[in-house]
Amino acid sequence: MPRKITTALIDDVKEMVHHLATAHFRSLAHLRYGDVRLEVAEGKAAAAENGASKFSGEDYGFSFGIRVLAGERMVAPGYFGRSLGAADLDSLEKILKEGIEKAYRRAMANGELKATVREKFGSLGDSLADTRLHPIRVSQDLVPAEYEIDPRTVDLKEMERYTTDVSRQVGALGDGVKYNFISTMTQLARELFASSEGALIDQAFALTQGMCYVVAASNGTSQELYDVLGHQRGWEILARGVNEPLMTFPPFVDFARSLATEAVELAAAPALPSTEGEVVVVTDPHYNTLVSHEIIGHPVELDRVLKMETAYAGRSWLLRGLDEHQVGKPVASPLVTAYSDPSLPGYGHYKYDHEGTPAKRVVHIDKGVFKGFMNSRQTAAIFGGDPNGHWKATDSSLVPLIRMSNTVFDGGDRDARDIIAEVDHGYYLVGHRIPSIAESRENFRISARKVYEIRNGRLGQLYRDGGIMADTKDYLMKVDAVGSDFRLYPIPTCGKGQPMQTKKLGNGGPTMRSRARLTGPVVGAMD
Amino acid sequence: MPTTSELARAVRQAFEYLKAQGDIREAEVFAAANGSLLTRVNYTSHIPCNGVEEPKSTESYGIGIQAVFNSPEGLKVGFGSEPSDLTLEGARRALEKARQGAVHDPEFHSLAKPTGEPRTLTDYHDPKLLQVRDEELVENGWKVVTGALRTFMASSRLVDLAGREAAVKRLGLILGGDVTILQERIALASSHMPEVQRDESTLIMSFLTAMVEARDAKGSGWSTGTRLDHFTDEAGVDAAANAIQAIGGERVRSGDYMVILGRQPVTDILNNLVLPSCTASAFYSSSTPFLGKLGKPVASPLLTIYDHGAMPGFMGSKGITCEGLPTGRTNLVRNGVLVGCLTNWYEAQRLLGDPKLNEKLGAEPDAARAALVPRNGFRFGTGGGRMFDTQPGVAASNVVVEGTESVPLEELIGRVRNGLYIGRIWYTYPINGLRAGDFTCTVVGDSFIIRDGQLVAPIKANTIRINDNFTRILANIVGITKDVKGTLVWAADEVVYAPEVAVRGVHVDEIAGFMEDLT
To answer: Structural domain tally of chain A?
Structure first.
């Protein structure tokens, strides 16, 4: 076996892992299902602050995770995960077998106690059920990564120089820029999935990202802005930008300079006044990226819907019980269609999820009517419907959760300029900033990077520190225009699960128009 | 997992190797082994479920090296690590990565040096928590589930609501959350502290949410501790009892209220807003609302906040930081005045060397030095653990909130007379950036209407949103209770020993009216 950990390692261990997932799993007396996930990543990163280099590094990631469903009286799950290193290579098969044994012991103990509690608690025990997975087409496949500049070939010193230069250029924009932090990363990862059902899926992903955080100030007022440029591609996306039908970015240095320029401009702008009542609001594709994430994507994750996230990420207003939900009912204006689609490009793209389910588009809202959820095999077995491939983990050692792929508002047929031009008086929100969403996603407040007043169809005064607040269903029902300018953007840090898993995924949408309350700053004790 | 002695041996060997390298000016070796055992709970009486959904664990160990290299371009600082290898070969690999990635950082002064403070906390962990069997992991999850189920079963109120005992399950009883055991072992040595130091810490905690969903009633329960023997079903029992107590919740109109913030809201506001504003890096980057306020009032004179990483028996206690410095008490706010910052060595040194120190912190170097003692340089991973593969960041440990003239809760409710008791908030973020101080969150459970000095009715879950500014909240504190309890919020590094705090003029907006008509 090689002593250096590279993504090529997957070729060397694939057969061994496949054998463990089939022959070894099947030797366990009460096993109903088992899978192994093994992941190798090779990555590089650099960071700079205020024009000075702070860090650069090149490293690998190597980890595995085991899932077992087993039990004698009742079937229950057990899991085990671990990070690995080069020193583990010679004993990898033994380590994986030990992980399987631990997951199996946990599942067996879990099934036994589940049966005991079910017997002990009368009707309250009735809902304790065997763990079942919805059947899927079992796949064996090899999925290559897409890139022009291989992340493994990028020179680390050049990456450090580039990152520091971007930070220097942002700082050189003037005295208004008080602080900037720039980071870049590029990596190639390869994920192997093997199951007791015979699946063997080898998927590779390239991922490159540039992040800019900037603090600008003017006359005691400051603006902290943050944004990322990212794609499942190689270093070329930072050097040259992205010019695809659904995703467009300038080169990273221009992206970062533009964000800093915006922060300086905003620091000198007046604060947005709040309103007591609703006003007309037009929201741009970048703002709607976060709206689609928060009020479409999260409430249609079926684990959350089935109350499995009650203590953490919350529930969903779309379902109270298995026979009391919004499927088939109007939840938005007929102009609104929304879906999740792993076949779209960007951070949310993949072919199979982390239980080997072929990923496919799932429509959540079709012309205003609610249609269905993102799911996993376990949740599909409970709620019904075919698995659509949205069970994903941040790392192989962690247990997957239902996560968004590319969750978006579909584009409409209106020219975005006309959507603004038709407004006598309203507000235009440009760029998302920070969200706060109610527990079942029934209400939201999301701040925008910039807010312009619209008067007689034209953009007027620019405001800082503004956003909107609305009840989700009311807001969606009041959408009266949807633009044709659909765009996808990366969301780099979506948190869910316990322990918290921070995941990269995609969201997007077109320009849209609705009604909501404006929310501006509160006068603080420091003012 | 390797023992602490094995980690110490690896550190000693690696450090001797580093000393023999001609191009290294300073170096630090940090070895760690971490285990996170977590039993995730999901019980739903109206939906098929597992009860214990995920009995699971993750493990990692390895060695990290930070080195300062002499180079033709001047001093360069680099960090590298190697997982799963405590041999000299592992150290060589980590050093090579550090050398390959080393950069010239003009703000780097040195690796951590002794502060003169002594270590006060040793041998404080429970060895039993380092040897938990797979079966015990699962049993602890079922322990809290059965505690909640017993509480639900014993409730005559639920039977009354359902009409008969067999129909109680139709009320939509939910229990979610987890039991978590953290196992942390570290050893380290550096050029300025060449004697190998070691630390071992463990904790067990449970955080649960229960609901009677058909009545939109939600309650929470939690327990924290450092001893396996002390772990009970308390969190499950409390969560279920609090959910039952929340039945019959009422809506509250928009307006400004006198509010008592319960322990979870106090913790959530500290975790997301106040503590990030008290870090040295927030002052350095000009992103704190307390910019230039050291030695000046930032809160009501009733309020005192400090971090204490060396408190015996407290859940977030550690003997040493991940830079090898002693943990201890750092006063942040004393009687309403900002008096200190959370920092590690690097952040303290660069802020002290910043030409704009006075503008940013509001103090000259001597006063600033006393406020910037590096007792909080930790390498925490998400979900716990002291990670060998990251450089030290800044994190709080045990945060204690105290009041001068503190009173029992009953007296505080009586003083408030008419207002709201808010026991649990959600998604508390600085909506316009940290420095602006504006924040928003929704109220999700454990909350009540106060009328004529009494808790008279629960507030219906998810029906109000707080829209305010946390600098106003701090300034408008009018009372603080006596008793504190270790309180956790999702994905937080620190434990807050929080009292209940009364604040005047908190603005809330009524939300989600459409949910009343949803069919």
So the answer is: 2
